[in-house]
Amino acid sequence: MATWLESQFSLNGKKALVTGASKGIGAEIAIAMAKAGADIVLVGRSKESLNDTQIAINEIGKKSEILICDVEFRTQISDAFEGIAQLGVDIAVNNAGSISRSPAIETTLEDWDRIINTNLNSVFQISQLCAKSMLERGQGRIINIASLLSFQGGINVPAYTASKHAVAGVTKALANEWGAKGVTVNAIAPGYISTDNTHALRNDPDRNSSILARIPVGRWGTPQDLAATAVFLASPAASYINGEIITVDGGWMGR
Description:
This protein is of the alpha/beta class. The protein is 45% helix and 15% strand. It contains 10 helices and 7 strands. Strands 3-2-1-4-5-6-7 form a 7-stranded parallel β-sheet, with helices on both faces. Strand 2 (39-44), helix 3 and strand 3 form a beta-alpha-beta unit. Helix 2 packs across helix 10 (223-234) and helix 6 runs parallel beside helix 7 (158-178). The longest helix is centred in the middle third of the chain and has 29 residues, at 109-137.
């Protein structure tokens, strides 16, 4: 029999949906939630891209389902999530995101729209779709992936910065509406994490050095650094946490 403490961090009997689950942060969160006891719905642009994550979850002994969806496109979300109520999702992690680096004066409106659609509009649409069944049951967890650029302006990433500021805002707005109905909404703001999105920064010697100089723990973060925080926010232990943007940044914001 599980101890009280173990039960507080258990996701046994829950079903968690994770967007952008093919690699990086999304894959690690999906795998960590499976280790905590949840069955997983993997969302990605192709079955092939999700194959490694699904194999890892199956090896843990948990069930996994796949939803094929490019979250940039509203109609794809509507089509893919048509049966979300039947899936009975208890936890939704809005992780999928995209970034484009260019000076503001050179940023095309097409690029702006792509980033806003992927990073912001999908978060609201998917949260809304998942929350319908959560609210009917009177329980649920929504976890959004924000950014340090939910608080700062950044350099050469105007669309990304705008989208992540807005993710922080919509997290708080939904938390205010749904918290009393049993559905908490929180966000994780990763620091500088070693993923495809930060490849250009890590390969720029000057930027890499300046970034590391400000991080008190002295290293880039990894997707695994974020996974336990996501499990915590999804667990009974976090039932009184709502509307928060939790930084996991090695101390960057405190510097």
